[in-house]
Design a protein that fits this description.
Length: 124
């Protein structure tokens, strides 16, 4: 009976850890997308320097989060990081496609978070 209780406790612990992981990744992605949206609003208002500064803050949050670096796939980390640098370059160039770049960056961040959601393929 002790083994069954220990197994049940371990299963509950694993489920709680998975739920915490998912919520953390989604919350962080939402925070990053919000920062990117703020940068987009600043750029739309003609404040390219403010937009770049806000995007740098979001990039720092992205790069300094050791948990995400350990939890997410390297390809996702690389694509989001490259998306930040591409967007900063578009802002510096005052590119006409800058608004599209903001949307692309938000999609990259959201996509990385969505890949961490539980699905039948990730469970079985």
């Amino acid at each position: 009976m002790k083994r069954e209780l220990a197994a049940a406790a371990a299963l509950v612990l694993v489920c709680c850890a998975a739920a915490w992981h998912t919520l953390f990744v989604i919350r962080t992605a939402d925070e990053l997308c919000g920062m990117v949206a703020e940068a987009e609003r600043a750029y739309s208002d003609g404040d390219a320097d403010g937009a770049a500064e806000r995007l740098h803050e979001a990039l720092e949050l992205w790069l300094d989060d050791g948990y995400l670096a350990a939890a997410l796939r390297h390809s996702e980390l690389d694509s989001v990081t490259q998306g930040f640098f591409d967007q900063l370059e578009l802002i510096a160039e005052h590119s006409p496609s800058c608004h599209v770049g903001f949307e692309r960056l938000k999609e990259l961040i959201s996509g990385a978070a969505k890949s961490e959601l539980p699905s039948p393929g990730s469970i079985f």
